[in-house]
Amino acid sequence: MPEPTPASLLTDLRNSLDVLLTWDSYPWPDVALIARRVGPLVLDVMASHGVWDQLTPHDQAAAHWTMADSRRIHQRWSPGGDASTYGKTLYRFTAEAAYFALKCVPTQTERWPETSSARAVLGQSAVFLWHAYEGLPEPWQACVLRQLAPPEPPPLRPRQPHVPEPVRPTLKAALALAAAKSERGKEPPAGPPSDQRTGGSTALVSRLARLPEAWRVEALRRIAEGDDPAQAVSDAAQAINLLRPVGILIGWNAPDSLTG
User: Fold this and answer.
1) pLDDT value of position 257
2) Are 184 and 137 in contact (CB under 8 A)?
3) CA torsion, points 23, 29, 32, 34, in degrees to nearest 10?
């Protein structure tokens, strides 16, 4: 059997993404198997086009994250839950794969419509976001992550009027305000009682700091896109561990509970 060419690998990837985009039209085992193939295929496509070494370290982390996500999707017995919610998960997965495919053939934008110019711009600015975050004192880092977390649901009370959720700031805005207040010697506001009891945002700062720097940058990019900071950091740690069985060994300062 002849070795696949760069063009044939791209065609295979395109065909696989087309299935994932209409995943609810196929038996789940078939979808899961195709999802598992997409992760390695993304890496093979970039290697065949000589693109991998041109990626920034955080884009390499993003590609490895996509590889881990392909394994994570394959391990599900069924999509379960809300189909629309899981459809969003698969669409994001395909969009990331398309983002890397487009790097191999940058003139073929119409062939990879799942990705967007916003993804490329945010990828380029992620390092600046990271430096802005890293330059803050730890209490202000915790404050920024706390501001970007989804609000806690209010306790249920009969006849309680509906209260709209507070508008979360963008990561850029939260970082800029935190830097300005920190320079003026201001202390960050206290978090909600639950955060003060558990040390949630402070612990999250430590968990983020344990990741390799490229993975921290990628986690912040995802947070800037609207991800829950705690979920983004947890997903990063899980992704690194999911890569080990396929021989992608990434050294990091993991807590014992994640390395055992």
Assistant:
1) 45
2) no
3) -80
